[in-house]
Amino acid sequence: MMTMMIAVLPGDGIGPEVLRSAIDVLKKVAPDLETVHGDVGLECFSRRGEYLPDDTIDLIKASDAVLFGAITTPLKAEGYRSPILRIRKEFDLYANLRPVRNPAPGIGLVDMDVVIVRENTEGMYTGDETVDADGVDLRRRVSRAASERICRFARELSESQGRKRVTCVHKANVLRKSDGLFRDVFYEVMEGSDIDSRDMIVDAAAAALVTSPQDLDVIVTLNLYGDILSDEAAALAGGLGIAPSANLGDRHALFEPVHGSAPDIAGRGIANPTAALLTTAMMLEHIGRADEAASLRGAVTASLSSGHRTRDLDGDLGTYEFTEQVLSRL
Ligand code: NAD
Ligand code: IPM
Ligand code: MN
To answer: Which of 236, 281, 237 minimizes the C-alpha distance to 257?
Structure first.
């Protein structure tokens, strides 16, 4: 078997802290994988004058999968283009897959097992803003092609996972043509499927996530709604420290926790690495290592279930102490 190479991009803030846990765990469950570190983000910019250097792009190209931490976005930098958005777009990682479930029984405010499938290349994220004397115009793109492939992705995922329902989330009552197109394409794509297909307006979906997440099951939605709903769902299921994600294209794949660089807790060794560890499990599954993925998930759940928790989950362990608990159960 050829050695697989994982590009590791820790980034800023708690990114390097939680990826350190992820790499230690990876070395234990899949020691044959080669890991190669690359630079990205604000700290990289301060050192090298670039947020996403060419050698990092080359590393991603050469990799079998990317493990990404988090980056800090400067709000006022002239000409700034978010490296993660650039990577998603340039590598055509069109499906942002965000499964949200309680990482262990008793954790979280609401019991849920929801999969959010987020369109990852267009919508409000075109970044196409034009400034005039009085304000800013934003051109937001919803294409038939992108809508079709994300809805097809959601259908195939739902069928392969034996899910009961796919809910298309939109705002077609206001954005009649753009979100209307997304909704129409969704029903076209779902035609002939045994999966129950429904649609819901995004504000109502935000409420339903709290009151009846089981009725949503799989959500397929546009870029910005998926961003917002995935933080909401994560918060309900145990917090941002627990939610993993995958950015998938036909040729490349990048795995990252849903959370950001958390500057408010960075550098203190207290971040919850659960999201990063479950992200690593998603990556292992993607590269054909389902057994290792299952054993990693099992070790995380067992650690949490036996009361080993970081502070965000009302425990008292640091990032590394929690990681040691997981390592000891592998
Ligand atoms: P955030 O997700 O970084 O943090 C929100 C809150 O959740 C904070 O209170 C933080 O302490 C907490 N939190 C997040 N992850 C945690 C963890 N693993 N363990 C314990 N607590 C955790 O969102 P933010 O504060 O709005 O953004 C901070 C920076 O991160 C911004 O510059 C933003 O642009 C960036 N960001 C990057 C990514 C990414 O790289 N993919 C994603 C989201 C935000
Ligand atoms: C996420 C993040 C990103 C997004 C930011 C950092 C550009 O919030 O991955 O959820 O909005 O997609
Ligand atoms: Mn987000």
So the answer is: 281
Verify that 228 and 263 share a domain, yes or no.
no
Q: What distance in angstroms lies between residue 194's CA and the mean position of ligand 2's atoms?
A: 33
**DSSP output for 180-234:** HHHHHHHHHHHTT-SSEEEEEEHHHHHHHHHH-GGGT-EEEE-HHHHHHHHHHHH
Same domain flag for 228 and 134:
yes
179 shares its domain with 248: no
Rounded distance from Cα 258 to ligand 3 centre (Å): 6
Is the CB of 262 within 6 Å of ligand 1? yes
Tell me the HSE value of 45 on the side-chain side, using a 13 A CA sphere: 14
State the residue for tokens 């990577």: 87
**Closest atom of ligand 2 to CA, residue 120:** 12
Full pLDDT tens readout for the chain, 330 residues: 689 999 999 999 999 999 999 999 999 999 999 999 999 999 999 999 999 999 999 999 999 999 999 999 988 888 888 999 999 999 999 999 999 999 999 999 999 999 999 999 999 998 899 999 999 999 999 999 999 999 999 999 999 999 999 999 999 999 999 999 999 999 999 999 999 999 999 999 999 999 999 999 999 999 999 999 999 999 999 999 999 999 999 999 999 999 999 999 999 999 999 999 999 999 999 999 999 999 999 999 999 999 999 999 999 999 999 999 999 999
Residues in a beta bridge with 118: 96, 221
What CATH number is associated with residue 326?
3.40.718.10
* Residue 70 near ligand 1, beta carbon < 6 Å: yes
The CATH number of whichever domain residue 157 belongs to comes to 3.40.50.2300
Q: What is the span of the domain harbouring residue 264?
A: 1-107+242-330
Catalytic residues: 125, 171, 203, 227, 231
Name which residue sits closest to atom 43 of ligand 1, judged by CA: 260
